């Protein structure tokens, strides 16, 4: 009986050529699994047919868009996590894809799971740790770590030799990944840090010269840290994010070009488009600024970096992640309100916020006359707050006096 291998299948260059390669190297039946993460009809069109024509015996296309947004992206948004201060972690789809691969592997009574990640990248870790968290019985196959293909150019040649249709060419060898949250661009001329990236490859975002010459004002309504409405109209999570992608992308918002430190130990350059996500992060940040007290806000900001590292490093299904989520959820209980933003020429500008839980109190903060704050109270506060500094200063002054006394004594002895 032939071995059954579940292949995480995107229809891109790498996973497209893995079907014939697996059949050449294993006595196996290939079952392709594609997750619809909002990458669009263009990428998913005829993907089942392509997988079957390439040699798969069966092909699944799983619609996981809603689960991706509600169970993954909204948790990320509430955390405020950005890897190395910029990257909004669009590869968060990997643990979800891995969970679906395990589910179908169990359903199909398969013995192995294959992924298309390279031996240089982070995704191999994300896929495999997620798979291990749900089952330890499946053999994991990672062709990029074992086959004789050594470059994208060779992979393109192999695809042509097998008559497999691909979008990648040697003139445009970019590696792209897309879902409802982002688009990533790597490879090609981006492999040199000396080159400005070519904005012609944008998929979700206008270049600045093509953005409107007028601003758009929007408002986003949150309930306990989760966006629920846009301009006072409630939408499903997928609809809301899709609409934000459209309007934010129109204004050229959400482009970053970064050199990031991969988990595997090397630096790499990537261009990322995250239009809707960038606007949501800004709005959420502004709402937290009026609703969270200083100590909670500062602690949450410190945790955000740890959360970003955890997500980037593939540790989504871990006890630490669950513990951090519990803290974050507690901080979001009163994060309900409305944030207004101005979108224009790549900028997302704060235009106002309100919340029934706001800790901002105009009567205390005003520069005008007030009846709630006695400015004389600050004098005593500064005296107490600055007491350690005062004592330290006294100590230094006494030490300096003692030093001069000793120096004088030494000079007198010399006489």
TrEMBL record:
Q: Which InterPro entries match?
A: Arginosuc_syn_C, Arginosuc_syn_N, Arginosuc_synth, Arginosuc_synth_CS, Arginosuc_synth_type_1_subfam, AS_cat/multimer_dom_body, Rossmann-like_a/b/a_fold
Q: Name one GO cellular component term.
A: cytoplasm
The UniProt record lists the Arginosuccinate synthase C-terminal domain at 174-391
A single MF term (Gene Ontology): ATP binding
Write out the catalysed reaction.
Answer: L-citrulline + L-aspartate + ATP = 2-(N(omega)-L-arginino)succinate + AMP + diphosphate + H(+)
- Looking at the record, the residues that make up the Arginosuccinate synthase-like N-terminal domain are 4-165
Where it mainly occurs, coarsely classed, is cytoplasm
Q: What class of enzyme is it?
A: ligase
Q: Which GO terms describe its biological process?
A: argininosuccinate metabolic process; L-arginine biosynthetic process; urea cycle
**Pfam families associated with the record:** Arginosuc_syn_C, Arginosuc_synth
- Would the keyword Ligase turn up in this protein's UniProt record? yes
E.C. no: 6.3.4.5
Chain sites annotated for binding L-aspartate: 118, 122-123
The keyword Cytoplasm appears for this protein:
yes
Q: Which UniProt keywords apply?
A: Amino-acid biosynthesis, Arginine biosynthesis, ATP-binding, Cytoplasm, Ligase, Nucleotide-binding
On subunit structure and binding partners, the annotation says: Homotetramer.
Q: Which family does it belong to?
A: Belongs to the argininosuccinate synthase family. Type 1 subfamily.
The molecule here is called: Argininosuccinate synthase
Taxonomically, what lineage is the organism?
Bacteria, Pseudomonadati, Bdellovibrionota, Oligoflexia, Silvanigrellales
